[in-house]
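Whiteboard transcription, Tuesday session. T.W. wrote the structure tokens on the left side:
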């Protein structure tokens, strides 16, 4: 049996792109090449989307570091609607297949639903050799990503909210943030797709300063971050509470470029770049794990660069 159980997730960011639910299925199947992968997709589509007629169209492949490849397919259910299929391959083994199901599509999916337990993913012991982070290549400047587009920012009314499990929720304007005092850090930045940039200078308000003001409760385990564009991400509170982490307002001596997140982005350099949400509007302390945008598509709840936590390990 190719697929025995699957995990269902979703996120507001995906919702805004018309995706109702992501179905994430762990798989273990050896493949030798693209045609093998296509056969696995057809088998999976047959199992889950029975009666759909499997017209599988290959879309693209992308390397994720040196270790993984992500292959995208589409299964058209009508001329303008398709189920997205993403196949993750590691060392010639398909390790998971993810289906992105359109919101407008009501399908009877055949699989056993399971509940995702992020605590399994918090105990990675994978180690690596000294030097550059495993699976990463240095490039000169960061590639701009804006998966949900570049939002228009009304700077006069923009505020950063810090709330959730805190003693004192706070709201800060850009001027308020500058008044708290700006610190600069020199960091390397790493994207999960395999590129890294050395020596970027960011300036902003240390998150520890915001924590002093808002005072998260002991029961906090996760920090969920939301952006103006509908993007979101999540990380364990212990990764959030690092002294180098900033609500960054400047990069390389200038206010953040609109494409890099103006007026403010989170900067968490120990984690892969997708955790550093741009155009940030809300930092929410919580005791409950929920997927952010990329986490809902199979990316790791934690994402430490040193331990190569690229994808959920289930
Ligand atoms: N709001 C938002 N934040 C985001 C993203 C995005 O698409 N939207 N992409 C993430 C990813 S995958 C990376 S690698 C970095 C890239 O930062 P840059 O665009 O400033 O180079 O931003 C992260 N923050
Ligand atoms: Mo990224």
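and on the right, the sequence the group agreed on:
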């Amino acid at each position: 049996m190719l697929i025995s159980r699957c995990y269902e997730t979703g996120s507001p960011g995906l919702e805004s792109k018309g995706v109702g639910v992501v179905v994430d299925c762990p798989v273990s199947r050896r493949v030798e090449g693209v045609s093998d992968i296509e056969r696995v997709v057809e088998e999976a589509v047959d199992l889950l989307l029975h009666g759909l007629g499997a017209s599988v169209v290959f879309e693209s492949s992308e390397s994720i570091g040196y270790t993984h490849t992500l292959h995208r397919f589409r299964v058209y259910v009508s001329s303008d609607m398709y189920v997205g299929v993403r196949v993750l391959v590691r060392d010639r083994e398909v390790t998971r297949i993810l289906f992105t199901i359109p919101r407008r599509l009501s399908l009877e999916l055949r699989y056993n639903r399971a509940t995702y337990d992020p605590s399994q993913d918090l105990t990675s012991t994978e180690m690596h050799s000294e030097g550059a982070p495993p699976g990463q290549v240095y490039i000169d400047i960061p590639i701009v990503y804006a998966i949900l587009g570049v939002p228009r920012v009304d700077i006069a009314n923009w505020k950063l909210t810090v709330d959730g499990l805190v003693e004192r929720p706070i709201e800060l304007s850009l001027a308020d943030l500058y008044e708290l005092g700006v610190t600069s850090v020199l960091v390397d930045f790493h994207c999960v797709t395999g590129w890294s940039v050395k020596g970027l200078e960011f300036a902003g308000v240390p998150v520890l300063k915001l924590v002093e003001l808002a005072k998260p409760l002991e029961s906090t385990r996760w920090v969920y971050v939301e952006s103006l564009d509908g993007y979101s991400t999540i990380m364990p509170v212990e990764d959030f509470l690092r002294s180098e982490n900033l609500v960054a307002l400047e990069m390389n001596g200038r206010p953040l470029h609109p494409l890099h997140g103006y007026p403010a982005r989170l900067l968490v350099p120990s984690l892969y770049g997708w955790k550093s949400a741009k155009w940030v509007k809300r930092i929410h302390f919580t005791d409950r794990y929920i997927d952010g945008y990329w986490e809902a598509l199979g990316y790791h709840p934690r994402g430490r660069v040193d331990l190569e936590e690229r994808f959920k390990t289930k």
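Someone added at the bottom: The longest strand covers residues 19-30.
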